[in-house]
Request: fold
Amino acid sequence: MGNLKAEMFNRKASNPKSKPFEVVEILSIKEGESILDIGSGGGFFSLLFAEKVGKNGIVYASDTNKDFLDYIEETKSSRGISNIKTVYISEVILGISG
Reply:
C-alpha cells in the first residue's frame, strides 16, 4: 500500500463534515444488490458499499486512475473482501481524444 493520493481521498471522504455514513444510509443499499461506484478514488465508499451489499452483492469500483484501482485491490485483499471488482475506465471508453 502507500498511495498518498488515494489515502488523501479516503480521509476527505471519511471526514464527518462530509457525512459519509448519512450518504450511504440515504442510498438505501440492500443485501444482494450490484453497485457502481463511479470515480471511486481510494475506495472509501466502495468498501462501505461492499459491506452493505454483503456476500451476495457486488460493488464495481471504477476510476480513470489505475493507481487508485491498484490501491483498492490491495485494500480489499488485505481485508479479505471479495465482493469488489475494480474497473478501469480508459479515455477510449470515455470518448476523449487527444
